[in-house]
Each structure stands twice: as C-alpha cells, then as structure tokens.
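Hi all, long-time lurker, first post. I run a small reading group and we've been trying to get comfortable going from sequence to structure in the token notation. Rather than ask abstract questions, I figured I'd post a concrete chain and ask someone more experienced to write out its structure so we can walk through it together at our next meeting. Sequence below, copied exactly:
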Amino acid sequence: MSSLTGASRGDRDHNTTSSSPDDAVSNTGSGDNVDLSTSEYAVRRRELMGLINDLRNMGAGGLDIHLPSIAVIGAQSAGKSSLVEAVSGINVPRDSGTCTRCPMECTMSSEATEWSCTISLRYDYHADGTPQDRPIVTQFGSPITSRSEVDIWLRRAQTAILNQSVSHEQFYSRSYEELRAWTHPRMLKFSKNAICVLIKDPEATDLSFIDLPGLVQNEDAEVIDLVRGLVEHYVGKDQTIILTTIPMTDDLENQGSAQLAREADPDGDRTIGILTKPDMLGSGAIGQLRRWRDILEGRGENRRLRLGYYCMRFSDDAERSQNLSRSESQRRATEFFETTAPWSQVTDRRRFGVPNFVADVSKLLMKLIQDSLPYIRQQVDELIASTKEEMDLLPKPPSLDARVEVLSRINNFCESFKEAVSGTNAYKDLAQRNRAAYTIFKRSIRGTAPDFRPFERPYEYTDPINIPELREDITWPIDPRVSPMALYDVRKVVKASLAWELPGDVPFEAKAQLIKEFVALWEVHVNTCFTSVCDILQDVVEEFVDTHFSQFRRFEEHMLRHVDDGLRTCVTEAGQAVKAALSLEMSPHFTQDTLTYNTLRRVLLSHYRSQYTHSNRWPRQMAASPVFDSDTPAFVTPVAPDPDDPLVTVKDNELGVMADVRAYFQVAYKRVVDHIPLTIEHALHHALSTRLSSSLLSSVVDVSNFTELAERLVSEDPGIATRRAALQIKMRRLVEIKDRLRAIAY
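-- Answer (accepted) --
Happy to help. Here is the structure in token form:
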C-alpha cells in the first residue's frame, strides 16, 4: 500500500523509533511547507473528506471500491468509547450493558460558525443481510444543536438500525427507559448498517473515522463471529488506517484487537496503536511501565508499527460526573503526562494527548485520500468496463409488444436456419459437419469395390489393381465383407446362370448377380451416413433454438416441442426418400455414361489379361488386401496380351465379366456418393427449413388467444431480468460516482 508507506521496509527495520503520521506526510514532500491554518489547505481538506463521504453514501464500498478511511477497533472496556468522545467532542452511549452494535461513521467539519450535529441512517444491507441495490441514506431527526442531546439520539438511532422492519420515526421520542425495554421479534443483536454522524464545529479539526463494534466475548458464538467478521471486513481493506485501542492494564500479546490488526496488516504499515488507561498503572508496576515506554518509543521488539503508538489519558468516572469541559479534560491529561514518570521522560511529546493525535491523523488521512484518487478513478473505470461486458453478454430485453417479439424471433430463427442449411451466412458448422459425414460415406462405399484377382489361387497374390483411371484423392477402408474373387469364383457364377445361351455367350444374369452383391453392401453405409447427419441436425437445431429462445424458458420449450415434431416428420420422410434412392441401384443396372464405362472396361480388361498372362510378375500375398491411393506406385506396367495365347482365349469370359462388373461399380459408385447426399439435403434439411417456416408461425398465430399466448411465451426468465436490473443499477451508481470524481481536481 504505497500511499501509507513513506519509508521502505528496510528503512523501517533499522529505525529505533516509529515515524508519526506527520512524518509520513512530510517525508513525501507534502507537509513541510503547509500551514494547516491557511484557508486553501482547509478548503482542500474539507473537499477531500466530503468526497469520500459522498462516495461512501453513493455505495462505492459495496461496489468493492477501496475508499481511504480510518477504522477504530478494540475490545469492550478498552477505552474505545472514550477515544471516540475525546476526538469527536460528543458523548456516546457508555453505561453498563450498553455497547456499539453497528458501525458509526463520524465526520467532523470545521466549516461552520456554530456547533451542530446531524445523524443519518445508511442502510447498505437489507434486514436479512443481503446487500441493497444502492444505499438508502435517511436523516434521523432534525439537526442537534445541544451536545447534551447527542447521547439519547445516538441510542435512538442505534435502536432504529437494529429494527429495520420498524419505521425509524417511531424512535424519535423514545426515552432512555423505553429504549432499554424495547423488544421486537425481528430485532437484530448487531447490524452491518451504519449510523452517520456529521459534526460541524468551528473549532474542530477536519477528520472522518468509523467506530466499529467492540470485540465481544460473553456472547453466543454466532454473535462473536458476526462482530469479528464485521471488523475484518473494514480493516482488511488496504486503504484503511487501523486505530486499535490497547488498554495498558493488560499485556499487548493478550489484546484481541491488536491480533486482528496484525492479521489484516502483518507488516504494520497502516496500523496506529492507541494506548489507553496509563493512569491505572501504579508507580510500582515498574516492569509494565518500562515495556509500555519501550513500545511507545519504538523499541518494542514484538510489535513495531510504522505509524507508531499514541498514549492518551481520558477522564475517569469521577471526572465525567463533574461535566468537565473538553479543554479542561485535555489540560488534565497534558499535566498527567508532563508530571508522571516514565511518560514525562519520553522525548517525542507528540505521542501524547488527543490534540496531537487528531492533528497528525487528519493530515495522514488527507494525504491518503489525495494519493488514492488516481487509483479510485482507475477502479471505477475498470468496474464500468467489466459491468458493460456483463450487460452485453445478457440477452437484449424483450420488446414491449409481446406479439411483435414472438413473431420477430420466430422469423429470425427460420431465416437463420435456412441460411445455415444453404451455408450462406456466417454459420458454416452444419454444412461443414455434413460434408465430413458425406466424405466418410464416400470412403465407405469405395471400400465395397469387388476384389477381382485373375488367378486360379487368388490368396497367393496381393490385389494388384492400380491403374490411373481408378486412382482417387482419398483413401478408403476395405469393407470386411468383401472377399477376393478368383477366376474359379466368377466361372461358378457364370455356370450357375447358364440357360439356352449360345456357346461362348455369358448370361447377363451372372453380371447382375455380381453387381447386386456389392450394391447390397451399400445399405449399411447409407443408413450410417443418414443417422450421422440426423444426429448433426438434431444438435444444430437445439443450438439454434437455444440461441434464439433461451432468454424465455416457456418460449424455448414451446419451440423445442414444435421443432422436434417437424424434425421427426422430416426424418421419417427423408429416410423413405433415401431408401428409394438406394433402391434405384438394385435394378435395372443401367448407365448412360457410356464413355466412362467403355473406357474403364477396356482398360480393366487389358489390365486383367496382363495380370493373368504374367501372373509370375505380381507379388505374392504377405498380408491382407492393402488400401491403395494416388501415391501408391504401380507394381508393374500392364502388358498387352498376345491374341494367339490359348490361355487368354480360354479365360476371356471370366476376365470379361470381371472387367464389366468392376467398370460398372466405378460408374455406380460415383453416382451414388452424389445422389444419396443430395437426397438427404433435399428431403431432410431443405424440407425441414421449409416446414418450420410455416409450422412454427402457425403454432402461435393459429390460436384463439394469440396475444395472451405471446405474453406468456416472452415472459423473461426472472433470473435474467433480475441480473439485468442489478447491472443497470450498478452501472448508474458507477456513472454517478465517476461524475462525482470528475468534480474534484487531482
């Protein structure tokens, strides 16, 4: 925390005495030449402290903006109330059984011609402890002009804070006895809401501090934890100066508030120790007096503070009963420190008495505020940016006309889905995922090609087919249902098909049988492709429904129900269309692409003849049939067969059948890997897009109570509406805070 550390850690470790807050100010160059009595300095001080009070009342603390402040902490009976009275000049409730049960923010301003005190209640939290959207600040009664009335009004204000469910005006006229006897079923023991006390006193030093409830011991564990948590909330902020009251009648190690301050400020950079009750140490307590003097002079090894300690003597009960003036109380305290050992022997006299302490800490607070202004502005700017980002992430608020909102969202959904199907908008996921599915389908169909091997013993050879006309830009897995077919296998099919053909003729039925065998393998791959595309479509449709309707839960459920109905219908109809498209390949076996077919047949026949004639040139079988692609080198260059070779003449029928069937596969395969995807696209995606455009509108328009239905459908999710409202309130608060910061110069 740079604004409070005028000296480095190394410098602090070598000092034998603590630096005062005045030193911390002057060491930075802002205090040596300043006359505290000059009007310019006084105006600036009031301006800065007024700014912080305004920001606090605007709810800056609740937005996690760290505001410079002074927090007074201590155990009960540690002299904390006496410190508050001595600094502020007012009387606070302090009789037996009475304690501070909520934070009290006390601001003293010298901008006045006569003394007055105004009490306000600031509700940062609801009665159940949840934060308010913004603080509610209410003036409690009229300004007080008599110091003697402050005590009773503070009691009334505290009772009002603890009874948030009761109108605060009911407590304006309550007496001491009525306040003590007051009970209510919903009355709190402690509250995080604050009493704000503004004291205007022409003789005051401008200062602001927060008096926190004293740490309690004789209470329920829940109350003890609540008070401790409240104190930790304030002192844990790195812009808070911690004033911890420490009665000198007990050892420093036993002080709960000192321990809590150490936890919040382990390096002691922003803690000031206030030593109280020095007059209760008798002259015989030599050891205690020596230890406290060492601590006061910065020689205490167990707890050094950069801002040091102050020692104060407050009026005892007897003196308070005399109603001594403030100046008389201070005179007696000064006389005590000047005449009582060992305090009279301490060199740094500014370490004694309330006036010295108030002057020092006022300058320290002013410097802290001044140095923190850039950081506060930065925090506000960052919070505005992050809040805007959160608001942008929320759906836009619905239209005031529910019917317009419903129709607009349905039209936008249908148009976006239509563009996604055609791939004409920024959303390419559907088209890209479908293309990937169709590529897998193509590879699967290619893997069903007949494995003809023009040998008598085919398993002794690898599949040698590798000709330019059959090369492709993909690789494919061989369908495990495809088995190699040798000359013998083809001959057997031909013989089984013979009827009254002339010698040397091959029945077309034999070729048809072989074609049906590979076409029959396609059904599984077609169904797999169709199922995959349907799953993709289901995902995309749900994503689109979520994008367009998730802001309204009922609307989303309505759309999902009708979209699912349309999707099921289209899937059924598309499935039938795909089945019909595949059945076209079963019969008849026909193509008008004669050029491709004849070219492939001629090349394949030549290739098979070459394989058969020169079988000794082909590699022996070493593994399962390989997968070939465009990078696979040819095993051998095909050799034109010798027409006079008797072996060729004998086997021409089988080789011709192989060439015919394999050539037809290539033509049919190229046809089906286009036809099936186009059928799916037309019968499923485009059909669904067309169906939804009409059915979704009909689901809301073709009803007797369209207006009522529309209002029900676009009733926004309460969580989203609540979140948006909270962010809007937060943004308004931040803008107000930023405007308030602009009104003050650096």
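A couple of things your group might point at:
The chain has two domains: 2-371, 403-715.
The two ends are 19 Å apart (CA to CA).
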